[in-house]
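Fig. S4 source data, part A: sequence.
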Amino acid sequence: MLLPVLLILMGGYRQARAQGPITSVKQLVALTNAQAAQALQVKLEGTVTYLQPEDESLFVQSEGFGTYVNFGKDKGLLPGDLVVVSGVTDASFKPEVTASDVQFVAHGSMPTPQSASFEDLIQSKLDSRYVFIRGHVLAVSMDRNAQNPGMRLRIKLPHGVMGARISHPGGLRMEDLLDADVRLTGVAGGQFDGRMQMSGVWLDMNSASDVVVEHPPASSPWNLPAVPIDQAIYGYRNSNESSRVRITGTLTYYESGTLAVVEQEGLAMLVETPTVLPLRTGMTVEATGFPEIADGSVRLIAGQLRQLDQSSHVEPKTINWEDASTGKFAYNLVAMEGEIVAVVHDSTVDLFIVRSEGHLFSATVQHSSSDALQSGSTGAEPTVGSRVRVTGICFVDQGDHWRSRLWFDVRMRSLQDISLLEQPSWWTVKRLTYLTMVLSVIILIAIIWAGLLDRRLRKQNAVLARQSQEDAIRERRMARQEQQRSHILELINSPEPLPEVLAEIRSMVSTRLFGAPCWFELNAHVGDAETARPTAEGVVFQDMFAPDGANLGRLFAAPLPRSAPDAEIAAALTAGARVAELAIDTRRLYSDLRHRSEYDLLTDIPNRFSMEKHLDRLMQGENRNRAGEADSTAGMFGLIYVDLDKFKQINDRYGHRTGDLYLQAVTARMKFQLRAGDILARIGGDEFIALVPIQRSRADVEEIAVRLERCFDEPFDIEGFKLLGSASVGLAVYPEDGSTKEDLQRSADAFMYAHKESKRHQEKVDDVMHRVWGEDIGS
């Protein structure tokens, strides 16, 4: 049944391509991205609804349909102009046009805007169309990224928040718009991530005439009474219903258009702000915004900043690693001392790794901070081995402030916030070599001047030769150690398994200790320990710790008698332990990131990305029978598409927390219906896919599909609510129902949709029968 439909669609597509170029926006938006990627010829007429000031691209609308035209040339067009666009189709978020020419036809008027709700916009039902919305202005800022001085707005609508941009704001004033109820007219669009997946809603407006203030702000937000920073949370409400608050204090950190930190009497708050005013740290400012709970702390979002007349000064609090790692100085201006162990510079940040009290932390300078932009370079800066004092804002990771140690970063305002306390040690190997050479020359001159006997001269020559040989051996040994260290750093930054990296570290320590046996003993939560060596006299060790202070294990060594001084043995073990700590922590971060990329964080089952990889492997014929031999069903599997019914109503009625718990309960119940080799993945908010390898026939898949649907028969008990759930199920079998991933998912989706429509029809029939019978009973 599916094959004839596909042939008909492909035939119609080829026929449409053979008939000539696309001549209307309606034809263009009816294409799929796969069709648009074929670079079909376009020659269509429409009205310009918006001009992109950054790249001269434009939006064109005709017969109620709109599209984006990528042109890149300034033709002097105006909104409302009637144009003819020539070019080819291209695939993007939706089909668009890459124009070779845009011809002006006549001056005209703008089309009648269509009313748009947040639901219409977030579902991209009105993408690229000329619309109007009504909402409340949460934040206003000038557009620092545009060539022209545009204006950006953050608008609150029923059920959501969106962004808006005015290319030519003219005489609009930010203070007249903040907290006003407005009617905005422009072109609907979206914000997109690097994969061109929609990540927000956006409205593009041409000029100030597209903004109508329907209800001016009752009062200026700057007239709100200032509240203490620790009481800003009193304005927090769920579902974007927080009340605006105003705080005052000293600006201790500022990145224009991004974030700021305001401190008041020892309390500090992070402010996410689009403000691009020329502010600097140390100024007294007032900030107004909406309290939000994120990363375990309260911050202001959609914040606005401005300077106050009075001046103030915040003295940094001198703290140690223990204080910073508890999180009690989060976002405060602090000062810490330590020794620099590494320095990294790139185009956006200067990074210093500092050791304090045996622990490591990072101190960074963001090049986008206001002080860094205005102060520039300060000349020489501390190097590795220097003891320094760093001053900055203590940014901490989310965690339990009562029981856990947190990783923190001291974010400095500029390089002037790092001061040198003590230079690196003068006594280095290089200078020792120079000194040895000077002494050798002096000795040689003294021997010649004194006229020592030939025997004494030969003995001195032998001594010098022996010293040279020892120096060469020492230099080769140092070169080998340097190569080992570089190789270990490369392994740490590669996917090499942790045991191989630890083996290289063990070899490096052994080399420094003249071949002494070395081994690791790791704690159970870190990894498998190496074979333990019997305790013997002279065995030394060094403990290893994670950034949060947890013990990771020990590095042991059994130095050979009189092979190296105790200080050198301790230095070798310490260096090896620190590198091993870095390797273990890097592998932990890598494993955590990999798990987050492949599993859904709410239900802890594979996500869409992981499902796609499993699907690829199944389509390559990797399923085999239990004996490991290929059978008649090898290469066959089933795809079951599960769409939860009325999930939105559950969220709306009981709240998102109940909705999340419901999803977790549904996942657990569906997993119970699957076999050991089956895979369940969450690919959307209320959409799941089960991959079922076939062992006998299609009936295997159909049986599991029925079990998945029937598992909703019993109600779900969620926090005291009895929720009656249901789901629509569709299935497809590879390769019977599709030979590609897209065809297979499309077939299962169509099956599921038909199932859903059948259920809706049955509900309508039942409803009609109920009313009929009810009327009969009443009569």
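Fig. S4 source data, part B ends here. The first strand starts at residue 41 and ends at 51.
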